[in-house]
Write a structure and sequence with these properties.
single chain
């Protein structure tokens, strides 16, 4: 059940889409509103329209950033990876993915993208960072640290 504000926001997006159906940024906002109102499938449809209109890194990264801010970390990584498909190497996208990987403790993708971030982040860098600068977080990240170290050894 939607609140009055959610319903109002959805109606505003509908009106905006009537005036600017080819504006990808209206579709992005429409998707954000739909996600926040709990309609994940409709949100994805709005975002799909946005990047069909403008398959640009900015479109993907706006979606990825919003998903990160709202706690949908894996989905954020997905859209950031789509941005890489459009643009290729792009340090801001790599840095976003690294932030997501640390937040979600995704060691595999951290190791895949860490060396491409700016500055490059190695397995030893992140282990040092967590173990020494955030000792209270060390226990929470223990499994992640071990996974990063194991993957780094396998890749060397």
């Amino acid at each position: 059940r939607r609140s009055g504000k959610e319903t109002e926001a959805i109606e505003m997006c509908k009106k905006a889409l009537e005036y600017g159906p080819e504006n990808p940024y209206i579709h992005i906002i429409d998707g954000q509103v739909k996600l926040l109102s709990g309609d994940h499938k409709e949100a994805q449809e709005s975002w799909k329209k946005a990047y069909e209109i403008l398959p640009d890194i900015d479109v993907y990264m706006q979606i990825a950033s919003f998903l990160y801010e709202t706690g949908y970390i894996d989905a954020s990584i997905y859209y950031a990876e789509m941005a890489l498909e459009v643009k290729g190497d792009h340090t801001d996208v790599y840095n976003h993915i690294i932030s997501c990987c640390i937040t979600s403790q995704n060691a595999e993708k951290f190791c895949k993208y860490g060396s491409k971030a700016t500055p490059a982040i190695s397995a030893s860098d992140i282990c040092y960072y967590i173990e020494n600068l955030y000792p209270n977080e060390k226990e929470a990240y223990a499994k992640f640290i071990e996974q990063v170290k194991t993957i780094a050894k396998l890749n060397s």
